[in-house]
Amino acid sequence: MIGRLRGRLDYRTADHVLIDVNGVGYIVYVSERTLAELPGPGGVVSVYTDLVVREDHWQLFGFLSLAEKEWHRLLMTVQGVGAKVSLAILGALGPDGVSRAIALGDWASVKAAKGVGPKTAQRIVLDLKDKAPAVMAMGGIAGGALPDPAEVIEDEAAPTPARATARSAAPSGNGAAVADALSALANLGYGPSDAASAVAQAAGSAPEADAATLIRAALKLLAPKG
């Protein structure tokens, strides 16, 4: 299994790039969003990869974060969602956007991706609701960008009571982000009291955090200990 590649980008097209790794060229399919963040030909890139093996061909898919990669893998477990549709969703929403849409039950946002109909969007939200917390709680490098690949190459190295409680516990911060985080946790099945406490603690530590960041932090606090 090829889990990660780093090398120089040889060329790029509308849906894939070729990465030269020590003289071996790998064709890697990426979302529009990922493609927009990659450098031009000759630039150094580092991507997490997922290898999909079919009877008639093998395909590598590339991602700038582990969270994006895990969402891709989860999305493809949903009936009617293949790699092309998964990349379209990630290209339209990004990993944080997918997290937020599923947590909030916002299938309309998922439907906005190219090639996704309303029934498929609803199925995605329903099927992945219980699986979302694990990916949403991923932190550190999983939720953000990879280290500067050039340096690596050079070195070769919710409910009203809950919302009110959270607002009173978090004296500062983005009220809309807090409300969205509470709503997301409620949709994921957490009780108002537990959700409010976790979101308040997360918002207190990072007053300017957006909803996706608050959700990730709250899920870590709510995760079983030991």
TrEMBL record:
The keyword Transferase does not apply. Keywords: ATP-binding, Cytoplasm, DNA damage, DNA recombination, DNA repair, DNA-binding, Helicase, Hydrolase, Nucleotide-binding. GO terms for molecular function: ATP binding; four-way junction DNA binding; four-way junction helicase activity. One of its GO terms (biological process) is DNA repair. SMART domains: HhH1. It comes from the Bacteria. One of its GO terms (cellular component) is Holliday junction resolvase complex. It is found in: Cytoplasm. Residues 1-64 are annotated as: Domain I. Its main location: cytoplasm. Residues 73-92, 108-127 form the Helix-hairpin-helix DNA-binding motif class domain. Residues 164-226 are annotated as: Domain III. Belongs to the RuvA family. Homotetramer. Forms an RuvA(8)-RuvB(12)-Holliday junction (HJ) complex. HJ DNA is sandwiched between 2 RuvA tetramers; dsDNA enters through RuvA and exits via RuvB. An RuvB hexamer assembles on each DNA strand where it exits the tetramer. Each RuvB hexamer is contacted by two RuvA subunits (via domain III) on 2 adjacent RuvB subunits; this complex drives branch migration. In the full resolvosome a probable DNA-RuvA(4)-RuvB(12)-RuvC(2) complex forms which resolves the HJ. The RuvA-RuvB-RuvC complex processes Holliday junction (HJ) DNA during genetic recombination and DNA repair, while the RuvA-RuvB complex plays an important role in the rescue of blocked DNA replication forks via replication fork reversal (RFR). RuvA specifically binds to HJ cruciform DNA, conferring on it an open structure. The RuvB hexamer acts as an ATP-dependent pump, pulling dsDNA into and through the RuvAB complex. HJ branch migration allows RuvC to scan DNA until it finds its consensus sequence, where it cleaves and resolves the cruciform DNA. Has three domains with a flexible linker between the domains II and III and assumes an 'L' shape. Domain III is highly mobile and contacts RuvB. This is Holliday junction branch migration complex subunit RuvA. It comes from Seohaeicola zhoushanensis. The lineage of its organism: Bacteria, Pseudomonadati, Pseudomonadota, Alphaproteobacteria, Rhodobacterales. The gene is ruvA.
